[in-house]
Amino acid sequence: MKLYVEEMPIGTIAIAESGGRITNLYFQQDTLPHDAERCETELIIEAFRQLHGYLKGERRGFTLPLAPAGTPFMLRVWRFLSDIPYGTTASYKEVAIAIGNPRAVRAVGMANHRNPLPLFIPCHRVIGSDGSLTGYRGGLELKKRLLELERGCVSDVFFG
C-alpha cells in the first residue's frame, strides 16, 4: 500500500492506493497504517486533485478506480451510497430499503461508519429519518459543511 498525506482546507487528509486503485481516505484523527510506503503516485495525485475540485464546488463526483474492502453487505451499501446524487440525501432507512433489507437500518449505519473511502463514497449524504445529521467519521461539523457545499447554500465553504 502506498500512502500520501496532504494538508487540505478540511484538515490533514491521507489517501492510500494499492494495485492501481484508491483503497482508503483517512481524516486527521484516523490512525494511519504503519506499514504503508509513504510516497506520491500519479493516482494519488489525481485523487487529491479531484478532491480539491470537489471542495471548491467545481466537481460533483469522482472518476477514480476505487477498491474499498468490506463484507458483501457493506459493498452493497457503499455502491448505493455512490449513487446518491450530489446535493441530495437519503436516510439510513431509505438505504436499507433500497438495498433490499428494510430491517437492516443499524447495519447500514455500521457500514457507513466503516466506509474506508469517505468523500469518494459519499456517506455524508446519509442522515437520520427525521432529517437530523447523525454520526460522521470526519465529524458532524464537516458533514454539515459538505452538505451545505453540495446544496449551494454557501460559496467558498472551504476555501473562503
Number of helices: 5
CATH class of the largest domain: Mainly Alpha
Largest sheet: 4 strands, mixed
Strand order of the largest sheet: 3-2-1-4
CATH architecture label name of the largest domain: Orthogonal Bundle
What would you call the shape? Answer: globular
Strand fraction equals: 15-25%
Question: Stretches where pLDDT falls below 50 for ≥5 residues?
Answer: none
Nearest-angstrom radius of gyration? Answer: 15 Å
Q: What string gives the helices and strands in order?
A: EEEEHHEHHEH
Identify the quaternary structure here. single chain
CATH superfamily of the largest domain: Winged helix-like DNA-binding domain superfamily/Winged helix DNA-binding domain
Return the CATH topology of the largest domain. Arc Repressor Mutant, subunit A
Number of strands: 6
**Total number of distinct structural domains:** 2
Q: Please identify the structural class as seen in this structure.
A: alpha/beta
Measure the end-to-end span: 34 Å
Indicate the percent of residues in helices: 25-40%
Write down the overall mean pLDDT.
93
